[in-house]
Write a structure and sequence with these properties.
Layout (H helix, E strand, L loop, with lengths): L12 H33 L2 H8 L2 H28 L2 H36 L4 H14 L3 H16 L4 H24 L4 H24 L16 H33 L3 H37 L3 H28 L1 H6 L5 H15 L2 H16 L4 H22 L6 H5 L1 H23 L1 H4 L2
Helix pairs in contact: 1-2, 1-7, 1-10, 1-11, 2-5, 3-4, 3-6, 3-9, 3-10, 4-5, 4-6, 4-9, 5-8, 6-8, 7-8, 9-15, 10-11, 10-13, 10-14, 11-14, 14-15, 14-17, 15-17
Length: 449
């Protein structure tokens, strides 16, 4: 076992999950911080119109890229299972397939995004004074699609063998360069949205270069040879079966969030600002939970491949314990420091009051979200990808849409909107864990050594 790899098939599960998940959590949180710096720089030095032009494109960008970044989960699960099964030759085929497929998808997404940017913004009712700036930002931003997907797929391949530290280092380096370039291009050269977009493109190319260079210098099954890049159709089929449902789920989440946001918007700009600030705070809690869920996903995938049922159960128990402690801490922070957290984003007391409403509904019940995400990871690690996707789409997205349309007109309060979070998480969590219990029992003999 190499020093950058974690042995997930032996040793302490609790210690291993913590060792593997902490860099994933740090990666998620750092990404949020770097994204926030983009907004801060353009907002402070390029003006409010440029700030609106950048932030208003977020939902559109996520709608386009979620399907493809979700496929990285398929890469992670597929290669991790091959490691557990001991199929070494399949690992190399899967790695080369994943990198080439990522590049091809990136090129296609880049061309598509550049061509439809302005039309999509018009359909989103982007104001006339922002349409040119938003279009310019999007067209430059979409140039980063090929390196972004290569980095995502390459990092997923590294995580599949227990290496979560080096992708974190790459993010630190490229994210730091992104921040420096933002300041340099916008403050020194007086560029606007184009400066922020160019900085993003450069940082993504650096990330992709670092991952590819690392894989080229690996030994054995993880050695990437650019001259041997080709699609292995069996590997691609398995990656797509596992990854496409995850991508579709993320896309549906984006759509349901747009509906919720439209309900929030009906309360006016103060409520929008407060909920926006609270949403940013929630992002850090989400990054923590997603890091733990990703750690469990890789652990379950490897041990399912190795047919180690007891370690799958141990992974579930250890992750539940960590999540319970983590979410209890999140709830306590939300209780004692709610005003201070929203106050980071605004000094307006009305905005802070609005943000507190959302924070209390979401973060007090975040354990429901965490346990729900763990169930999704367990099912995907067992190669049941359709079940969590359909359940999440109906349970989370469906419940939210149904609740908004059925109850919001009757009880037009922000609390009505916010209740969709714990309600949808709770219902979906219960259904998912019923599936987990049934499928684990069904496959217990096959998963036992």
């Amino acid at each position: 076992m190499k020093k950058n790899e974690l042995d997930m098939l032996n040793g302490s599960i609790l210690k291993g999950i913590l060792t593997f998940s902490v860099p994933l959590i740090a990666t998620n949180i750092l990404q949020l911080l770097f994204n926030a710096m983009d907004v801060v720089v353009v907002g402070r030095f390029a003006g409010s119109e440029c700030l609106a032009a950048v932030t208003s494109t977020n939902h559109l960008i996520h709608l386009f890229i979620n399907l493809f970044t979700g496929m990285a989960i398929g890469v992670n699960v597929h290669i991790a299972r091959k490691i557990g099964e001991g199929k070494r030759e399949a690992i190399s085929k899967s790695l080369h397939t994943a990198i080439l497929f990522a590049f091809i998808c990136g090129i296609g997404l880049m061309i598509f995004g550049i061509c439809i940017s302005r039309t999509a913004l018009i359909y989103m009712n982007t104001p006339d004074n922002l349409i040119d700036l938003s279009t310019l930002y999007l067209k430059i931003y979409f140039i980063s699609m090929p390196p972004m997907l290569v980095y995502e797929f390459g990092s997923a391949a590294l995580r599949s063998k227990g290496d979560s530290k080096r992708p974190l280092f790459f993010l630190l380096l490229s994210g730091g360069i992104n921040v420096v370039l933002n300041i340099f291009l916008v403050v020194v050269f007086k560029m606007t949205v184009d400066g922020v977009a160019i900085a993003t493109v450069v940082s993504q190319f650096i990330s992709a270069f670092l991952v590819i260079n690392l894989l080229r210098n690996e030994e054995g099954d993880y050695a990437l040879s650019l001259s041997n890049l080709k699609i292995d159709w069996n590997s691609l089929k398995e990656i797509l079966i596992l990854g496409v449902p995850a991508g579709l789920q993320s896309t549906m989440f984006a759509i349901s969030n747009v509906v919720i946001q439209s309900s929030i918007n009906s309360f006016g700009s103060t409520m929008m600002s407060g909920c926006g600030a609270a949403s940013s705070v929630e992002g850090f809690a989400n990054g923590t939970v997603q890091g733990l869920a990703s750690g469990a996903l890789t652990y379950v995938s490897q041990n399912a491949g190795a047919k180690k049922y007891d370690r799958i159960i141990g992974t579930i128990k250890s992750t539940l314990l960590i999540m319970f402690i983590t979410c209890s801490g999140i709830a306590l922070i939300a209780y004692f420091f709610d005003r201070q957290l929203i106050g980071i984003y605004s000094t307006d007391q009305a905005v802070i009051d609005c943000g507190i409403i959302r924070i209390h509904f979401a973060l007090y019940s975040y354990i429901l979200y965490a346990v729900m995400q763990l169930a999704v990871s367990v099912l995907r690690g067992l190669k049941y990808s359709i079940i969590p996707t359909v359940t999440m789409m109906l349970g989370v997205c469906g419940t939210r849409l149904l609740w908004i349309y059925a109850m919001f007109d009757r009880y037009r309060k922000i609390e009505t909107v916010m209740f969709t979070y714990p309600l949808s998480w709770g219902i979906t969590m219960v259904v998912l864990w019923i599936f987990v219990i049934i499928l684990l029992r069904k496959n217990k003999e096959a998963l036992s050594s």
